[in-house]
Design a protein that fits this description.
Blueprint: E1 10-14, H1 17-23, E2 33-35, E3 41-44, H2 49-61, E4 66-75, E5 85-86, E6 90-93, E7 98-100, H3 103-113, E8 120-121, E9 125-128, H4 136-146, E10 150-152, H5 155-165, E11 169-175, H6 185-188, H7 199-208, H8 212-237
Parallel strand pairs: 1-3, 1-4, 4-11, 5-8, 6-9, 9-10
Antiparallel strand pairs: 2-3, 4-10, 5-11, 6-7
Helix pairs in contact: 1-8, 2-5
C-alpha cells in the first residue's frame, strides 16, 4: 500500500471482496485504495486484525479524516438473525480493551439505517477476535465472557488505529451466521484472505468431507441475507456511511 491517493473524508475498511462490491461497482484490488462515488474511499484489507490495521493506517496516510468498518459479522446473541444490521456502540478485543465509536456519527447512522426497516442492533458491543469462531460452543463461550452481541475479526484493529490517529470511527455490520450455526472448518479453510474460493481446496474439502455439501445451501442463504442487508444499508446511509460532517 505504497500508493498515496488524496481522499476525503471517510476511509472504509472492508475485509471481503463481496463486501467491497456492495459499495462500488469497481473491481477493488486487495491492499489498494479505491475511490467511492461520494469522494470517500475504500480499502480491501483481507481478513484479520493485522490486515485491517494496515488498511486503516493506509487510509489515514492517504488523507482520511474518519474511519469506518463495513461488512458481515457473526452473531453471538441467539436473538440475532441472519440479515440483521449491527451498528455497535463499542468494540471489544480479547485482551479487555474497549473502544467507543463516535457518538454523533453513530446516532446519524442509526437514523439512516432505520429507513431500511430491517432489524437493527445499535446498542451494545461487538467483539473482535484473532481467529474465527466456527462452532456454537465457541460463540456461546465468547458471548458469556464478553457480553457482546456479535463478532468479527477486524473492527478492534481499525478502532485502535483510529484511536492512535485521533480519528472518529464507526462500524456497520450485517449478521451472516447465527449463534446456532456451525461453519465447517473445511469450508472456512477453502477461501482466501479476501473470501474468494480456492478451487483446489474446495474440491478437496468436498472429497474428504462429503457432508460439507449439505451445508452449502444454508450458508449460501445466510450470505445472501447478509449481502441484501448490506445493500439496503449502503443505499440508506451512502458510501460515507452517514458521516455527519
Amino acid at each position: 500500500m505504497s500508493e498515496r491517493t488524496a481522499i476525503r473524508p471517510v476511509g472504509v475498511v472492508v475485509a471481503l471482496a463481496s463486501e467491497a462490491k456492495v459499495l462500488t461497482p469497481q473491481n477493488a484490488q486487495p491492499d489498494r485504495i479505491t475511490q467511492l462515488a461520494d469522494g470517500s474511499s475504500l480499502c480491501l484489507s483481507g481478513m484479520g486484525p493485522a490486515a485491517a490495521r494496515r488498511a486503516a493506517h493506509a487510509l489515514a496516510d492517504a488523507g482520511a479524516t474518519a474511519l469506518a468498518v463495513f461488512g458481515v459479522a457473526g452473531a453471538l446473541d441467539t436473538r440475532l438473525r441472519s440479515g440483521s444490521l449491527c451498528c455497535p456502540e463499542r468494540i471489544l478485543d480479547e485482551h479487555g480493551h474497549a473502544y467507543a465509536v463516535d457518538s454523533a456519527w453513530h446516532a446519524r447512522l442509526q437514523q439512516q439505517l432505520a429507513l431500511t426497516r430491517r432489524p437493527l442492533h445499535a446498542n451494545g458491543s461487538l467483539l473482535s477476535v484473532q481467529t474465527p469462531l466456527l462452532t456454537t460452543a465457541d460463540k456461546a463461550t465468547a458471548h458469556a465472557r464478553f457480553a457482546a452481541f456479535a463478532v468479527d475479526m477486524e473492527s478492534a484493529a481499525v478502532a485502535e488505529a483510529a484511536h492512535e490517529r485521533k480519528l472518529p470511527f464507526v462500524v456497520l455490520r450485517a449478521i451472516v451466521d447465527e449463534a446456532g450455526d456451525t461453519i465447517p472448518a473445511a469450508l472456512n479453510n477453502s477461501v482466501d484472505a479476501w473470501g474468494r474460493p480456492r478451487a483446489l481446496r474446495l474440491f478437496a474439502a468436498f472429497c474428504r468431507h462429503p457432508s460439507v455439501l449439505t451445508e452449502l445451501p444454508r450458508l449460501y442463504s445466510r450470505m445472501q441475507h447478509a449481502t441484501q442487508a448490506l445493500r439496503a444499508a449502503a443505499e440508506a446511509a451512502g458510501p460515507a456511511l452517514a458521516w455527519p460532517s
